[in-house]
Design goal:
Blueprint: H1 13-20, H2 25-41, E1 45-46, H3 49-56, H4 60-72, E2 77-79, E3 82-84, H5 86-116, H6 126-133, H7 141-147, H8 161-172, H9 179-183, H10 186-193, H11 198-210, H12 224-237, H13 251-264, E4 266-267, H14 269-272, E5 297-298
Parallel strand pairs: 4-5
Antiparallel strand pairs: 1-3, 2-3
Helix pairs in contact: 2-4, 3-4, 5-10, 6-13, 8-11, 11-12
């Protein structure tokens, strides 16, 4: 089970009040604080009397008496030095199962939308794709993309769903989204599958809009329009995560790159490595001409 901190849990007032009936106000307070700690830690908590007594704002002897009473009444269980609660464990597991179900549904929906979409070159990509298409008769579109200083391609690997959720919750801040809405990641996963970058587009946008919220939002869909706008602005500006250089590219591909560079007098260091004539250049020496690199400039996408 994940031990990530999640800042919310389902609370059932009637069940809770029935469960604490007959306890003193002090015992109810200790019980509530320890339950919150269990939920926050996403599992059992170590019974460190001094630390937990301080957490509850009590002296150690009084705290110890309350904990022993709660254990004796079956409200808490002590196992291998850790305090746990059966109801809390069930709710934590229920929350994890709900996240998996909603995330799978979101992925399936995103994949269907992705299948219906056709790739379209951006204004930044189009002129370079055309130039290099003349030098490469290979029908594999991935080859053209690799020749192109795109500036808008995200090469970040897919993340685990619980990691994505944890980052989203950290970005929006505690209490700024309804608990049931936080579990459903379909809107975010749909954006990611469409090429929107989590770190560059999604999280910064959520952080910015969360600062202006006056009440919790119902779901992540609240942010989708703003995230798309941020992504489109980044793409149009030619910014983003650029694919790393590929030293193993074959001569045919390097020939296409050099043809483009010689015609346009610029070079894409993030994708192709150091410019010819500079230390660390990875272009095959057999393809270089004496004037390669002279008066060439670093590629910059038009704003």
């Amino acid at each position: 089970m994940s031990r990530k901190h999640i800042p919310y849990f389902s609370f059932y007032p009637a069940d809770f009040m029935n469960g604490v009936r007959g306890l003193s106000a002090q015992d109810v307070g200790v019980y509530t604080m320890l339950l919150c700690q269990i939920y926050e830690e996403n599992g059992p908590v170590a019974l460190n009397h001094f630390r937990l007594a301080t957490y509850c704002g009590m002296r150690v002897p009084a705290f110890t008496r309350s904990v022993e009473k709660l254990i004796a009444l079956g409200k808490l269980e002590l196992e291998n030095g850790y305090l746990k609660n059966k109801r809390a464990e069930a709710e934590i597991q229920k929350r994890a199962d709900g996240l998996k179900i909603n995330s799978k549904a979101g992925l399936a929906s995103a994949e269907k939308r992705q299948q219906k979409q056709s790739p379209v070159s951006t204004d930044v990509q189009r002129p370079f794709n055309q130039a290099e298409a003349d030098t490469d008769t290979d029908t594999d579109t991935d080859t053209d993309k690799d020749n192109t200083p795109s500036g808008v391609v995200s090469s970040a690997p897919p993340e685990k769903l619980d990691d994505i959720q944890a980052k989203l919750i950290e970005a929006i801040g505690e209490g700024n989204i309804q608990p049931h809405g936080a579990l459903n990641l379909s809107a975010i996963l749909g954006l990611i599958s469409a090429g929107v970058d989590l770190e560059t587009d999604i999280l910064p946008t959520i952080r910015a809009k969360a600062q202006r919220l006056s009440r919790p939002v119902g779901s992540w869909s609240y942010f989708t329009d703003a995230i798309r706008d941020a992504h489109n602005r980044r793409v149009q500006a030619g910014q983003g995560i650029i694919k790393p250089s590929t030293p193993e590219a074959d001569d045919k591909r390097w020939t296409g790159r050099l043809k483009l560079a010689r015609e346009r007098k610029y070079w894409s260091t993030p994708e192709w490595g150091p410019m010819p004539g500079l230390d660390g250049c990875i272009v095959p020496k057999s393809l270089l001409s004496p004037d390669d690199g002279k008066d060439w400039h670093e590629f910059k996408a038009a704003a």
